[in-house]
Amino acid sequence: MRKKLIVILWISLVVLVIAFCSLVIYQNKLADEKLKEQERIEAEQEAATLEEAEEAEEETDEELPADEYTFTDLEATYFAQSDATVREEPYDTAEIIGTLSIDSRISVVGTCNETDYYKIKINGDYGYIAFDDVSEEYIDIPVPSATKSVPTASKDILFIGNSITFYPATSDWWGSGWGCGASAPATDYVHLTVAAKGYSSYDCMSLRAWEFSNTRNYELDDLDPYITNYQYSTIVIELGENVKGHETHFKEDLKDMITYIKSYNPNARIVMLDNFWKYSSIISTKKEVASEMGCTYVSLSDIQGVAEYQLQEGDQYTAPDGTVYTIGSFLAGHPNDAGYAAIAQHLISAL
Fold first, then answer.
1. Which of the four, 163, 223, 235, 333, has the lowest number of CB atoms within 10 Å?
2. How many other β-carbons are positioned within 10 Å of the β-carbon of residue 101?
3. Which of 23, 25, 29, 120 is nearest to 79 (CA)?
4. What is the pLDDT of residue 27?
5. CA distances from 75 to 100, 101, 106, 111, 176 (A)
6. CA distances from 303 to 188, 276, 338 (A)
7. How confident is the model at residue 274 (pLDDT cuts 50, 70, 90)?
């Protein structure tokens, strides 16, 4: 009987211990769940508070009258990052009035004291651009990698230029695919040079877009159909007339172009043709690049700005089909036949 009682007591004690442990585990579980729920509620409250604060800040910016933004004067020149957004007011949700491509030059006139925006001059007016959308220095765009082998097929000469070298058919003039302003293909400087030198094979192409571009190295692949397929004995570069107003890192870009050409045409003689229009700073840069890169420089200083070599606004030209063209502002200043002959004479002498 006594043994039986002891057994019952031990069993009861074990049951009590198990029950106590289960209760402790249950209470701990409840406490853990309660703590997690509290943390979840606090996190939601914190997120809601932060969101309300951000919304309030945005509403404050958006609702602030335009004349209440204040600015600290700043006179600086920066460069746009890729697709920089210009806004009507200095905050993120203001109306977009334009975008600027990478390396566009920006004239900054002030810093907004209420938001992270600069006040800039654009198209004769003012706009606003975020701090993160500009750089103090232009973005260095590398020369394209040479992915093809040096060509083995050869040609005599390649002319790389702007409208003075090659211009497509437009309503502005009577020509189609030769030097703009020449009365016929045979009278532009390219064809006069080819005929005088007796070249049997030549190419000419327009790289006019390169002159205007903020990202000139992105335009260099336009050369690929020529320099990657043919090894030219001579390459003439006639560029610079349209660079006025786009001179930022012109020197570096011109050197990069020559470097890229030499990657496929290492043995070509590169000839730098002077500007037909007299822009002193551009001409000076071209001379420096020609000297540094081992190019032949052909001066046109004696014909620059000479009226007898230029088309004059208001003059008329009658095309072979009888159509009468009046020289407008675009054509005016381009070489006439006398001008093209003079350019050719200088180039032929150098070649």
1. 333
2. 14
3. 120
4. 63
5. 19, 21, 11, 10, 46
6. 16, 7, 10
7. very high
